[in-house]
Amino acid sequence: MGTNAQRISTEPDRFAAVHISQGFRVGDLIFVSGQAAIDEQGEVVGVGDFGAQARQAVRNLDRVLNAAGSSLDQVIKVTIFVTDMAYFSEVVELRREVFSEPYPADTICEVRSLAYPELMFEIEAVALADGSTIDVADG
């Protein structure tokens, strides 16, 4: 028996022009493509402002998760890309602001560049679907 994948998208779907899906639901998991500081008009938000870019990227992530019937509270894994690891402490603070315990598994890495030269931050995620809960393991 196979598992079906359901494509997740929001309107406007700015990913369509570059042949990328915003995300997929596979079983009880949601996989979301990397989200950056791009607004609904396709413009970069917060040029030169790492915090503004990170928060816009998280808003975009939340929007896709909501379209999939999930939320930031159901995120179990994130991968974060930054163009300068000097912003690591800001990333830690952002994770504290937008996620709660148990915090998602996390990978962060510095990259030379992102899709547009002005971008400084990108986040992708895996989340639980449809009100599934995260159990806290004792011990």
Describe the secondary structure blueprint for this structure.
Blueprint: E1 5-8, E2 23-26, E3 29-36, H1 50-67, E4 75-82, H2 88-98, E5 105-110, E6 121-128
Parallel strand pairs: 4-5
Antiparallel strand pairs: 1-2, 2-3, 3-6, 4-6
Helix pairs in contact: 1-2
Largest sheet report: 6 strands, mixed
Overall shape = globular
Unreliable residue runs = none
Examine the coordinates and then state which fold CATH places here, giving the name of the CATH topology.
60s Ribosomal Protein L30, Chain: A
Question: How would you characterize the overall build of this protein?
Answer:
The chain is of the alpha+beta class. The protein has a single domain, classed as RutC-like (60s Ribosomal Protein L30, Chain: A, 2-Layer Sandwich). Helix content is 21%, strand content 27%. The protein has 2 helices and 6 strands; from the N terminus they run βββαβαββ. It has helices at residues 50-67, 88-98; strands at residues 5-8, 23-26, 29-36, 75-82, 105-110, 121-128. The longest helix has 18 residues, at 50-67. The mean pLDDT is 90.
Overview in brief:
The chain is an alpha+beta fold and 139 residues long.
Keywords, separated by commas or semicolons:
139 residues; alpha+beta; 60s Ribosomal Protein L30, Chain: A; six-stranded mixed β-sheet; 2 helices
